[in-house]
Amino acid sequence: MKKLLLLLPLLVATCFGYAQVRTTFTVDINDDINDSNIISVSAYSMRQTTDGGYIEAGNIEQSYGLQNICLLKLDAYGKKQWLKIIYTTGVDNAWTIRQTPDGGYAVAGSTNRSGNYNMLLDKFDSSGNLIWSKTYNVPGITDTTDAQWLELTKDGGYIMTGYYQITLNGNAYNLGYIVKTDSKGDTAWTQKFGDDKHETFGNCISPAKDGGYIVGGYEVIDTIYYIYLLKLNSVGGKVWEKTYGDGSGTYDYLLWSVVQTRDGNYIATGSTDSVEDGNSGITHFWILKTDSTGDSTWEHAYAHDSSGGTGITEAADGDYVACGSINIGMNNYYGYIVKVTPAGVIDWQQNLTAAASGSGVSIQQTTDGGYDLSAVQTITGLGYHNGALAIKTDSNGNVSVTIDTLNIVNGDTTIANGIGGSVTWSNGDSSNLTGISVNNINPGQIITLYPNPFSTQTTIYVKGTSLQNALLSIYDVSGKEVNRIEKISSNLIIIDRNNLNNGTYFYRLVNNGQVVNIGKIIVE
């Protein structure tokens, strides 16, 4: 029997005494929330922190009508360092989080603590303790104001974009709004956009190379949605604004994320129900490239049944990586990532099986060349309306299984076919391994495991492979088989805790002599 020791992969600079972590993970925030009053958990923003770890912001909805902001801090391996819930007497929303130069965090969203909804900017220290909280609205407007996006500014302040609501002809009507503050959250300047003929939303804002800002969103003209881009100078003056649609007034276009690229142009993602291949009538994942003045260079649809793209970033190699969701059938949405060249040609695309029934919301490239994402799930039968994930991928969008120690039974080395890290066999031989997709060994096969960790039972769902008299074996960390399920002919496998103690275990699913999947389960 060979013993496999899988070490977390490190690049060690011995002369300077530091290490850069190369790892992937999926963290289920719901597993850290144990409150019967909670009916929904969601997360919309995640960023790598200066210590190599990650910070994620989300919302926790209570059954008694309140909603609170939560912050989750992870280390570089995805292990939880702390979770903070900011309890208030209102409905609070966190849409964006950024680490600040002092090592703390800033969160933007909205709150109705004072009655009507106002833009919200919360400042936290490095441990997630609230330092100050500021709200903003349009002078003279008492209806809803909401901050959809936050970025740090070069002067140490903050800039937010979103929308404010007015009542027009007895109906709610939304217009774009931008607030620039100093480092203490005090307003420096504001800017409105849209008018009483064009309902307009500000969904995102990003710094530009000239010290100004690019704002993205959409506007509504005669019930049709159009892309809206607005370029501002450093003090909020409008430089140019553009709308983008199909020209016929028939199809909708929505934009959720835009950034300036290193060539001085812009890349944006969103959705449309009109594409060049004639496959219209359903929503598509869509990317738009413009020149420096907002004129279209190219546009492409990449997933032809999707909720659209919600986050985009420029990779270190000059390609563009966007995230969102894709419908894999029967309105079952999975997280989706696509990497395209500067000309819009697909480099690679991945379905995030870990984000089953969900959507990737935000994305950023990490220092090791991978990507971090927040993801929202729709969970049924578990007491939650939504669930939340923190996901870290490798440079190709894979999420790898992280295994600590595993014995290989009867010399079976199938597991060594690609798990990321270093391997040491009991006979002293060692070799390096490449990455394996989190729940995939065979192309086209999708494995979903939920919940994990679990206390009573968990379920493995296999899609893409028909199981006939399959065998599921469960091993402890010493490699001893502690449970097995035989003669499996259903693609839905329920694992009961039975006599398993708290701890880490590994499973291997074999079908017709072929290993279908190997993974880790945690009992707590």
What's the short story on this structure?
This protein has 524 residues and is mainly beta. 0% of the residues lie in helices and 58% in strands. It is globular, with a radius of gyration of 24 Å.
Which helices and strands appear, and what pairs or packs with what?
Layout: E1 2-7, E2 10-13, E3 18-21, E4 25-28, E5 38-48, E6 54-62, E7 67-74, E8 80-86, E9 92-99, E10 105-111, E11 118-124, E12 130-136, E13 145-152, E14 158-168, E15 171-181, E16 187-193, E17 199-207, E18 213-221, E19 224-232, E20 238-244, E21 253-260, E22 266-272, E23 284-290, E24 296-303, E25 308-314, E26 320-327, E27 333-340, E28 346-356, E29 358-365, E30 371-378, E31 386-393, E32 405-408, E33 421-424, E34 430-433, E35 446-450, E36 457-463, E37 470-475, E38 481-488, E39 492-496, E40 503-511, E41 514-523
Antiparallel strand pairs: 1-32, 1-33, 2-3, 4-31, 5-6, 6-7, 7-8, 9-10, 10-11, 11-12, 13-14, 14-15, 15-16, 17-18, 18-19, 19-20, 21-22, 22-23, 23-24, 25-26, 26-27, 27-28, 29-30, 30-31, 33-34, 35-36, 36-39, 37-38, 37-40, 40-41
